[in-house]
């Protein structure tokens, strides 16, 4: 299912755009990644000048780290599992607060090959927490194999971060 994998150029362009918009708005960002395992942070830091706006990231692959490091309520994780929109929201807010950034970007989902927490392969939740405490959470179902799902998640997360940074710049 390689046809569903976004082009590498699209991912890099999304990272460049997000970083440019953050820089233009005078904002910073931090990431909390689960299924992408650091892909988002890697793409961001692959762009020259990223250190001016990218604070860093947390790879909370294990469920207990989502609670212990990012502050996701343990009872939420026990009740809903790690793949849930409210988990993504708490991850985004947690990384924003803990890494002292203007924006927190978080991803949690099922890359496959098997379903998890009753969620199908390809189900992903992406959250962006911005200034003022509001967090926007989106649900996606990406087609393809593990690589395709992780790459599509990275691309869409970067696009959502860019959209959020662009909105701040317009105010």
TrEMBL record:
The organism's place on the tree of life at top rank: Bacteria
Nucleotide-binding among keywords: no
Ranges where the CinA C-terminal domain occurs: 14-163
UniProt keyword annotations, A-Z: Hydrolase
Pfam families according to UniProt: CinA
InterPro entries: CinA-like_C (IPR036653), CinA_C (IPR008136)
A GO molecular function held by the record: hydrolase activity
Coiled-coil regions listed: none
Keyword set includes Transferase: no
Name the record gives this protein: PncC family amidohydrolase
Species of the source: Nocardiopsis mwathae
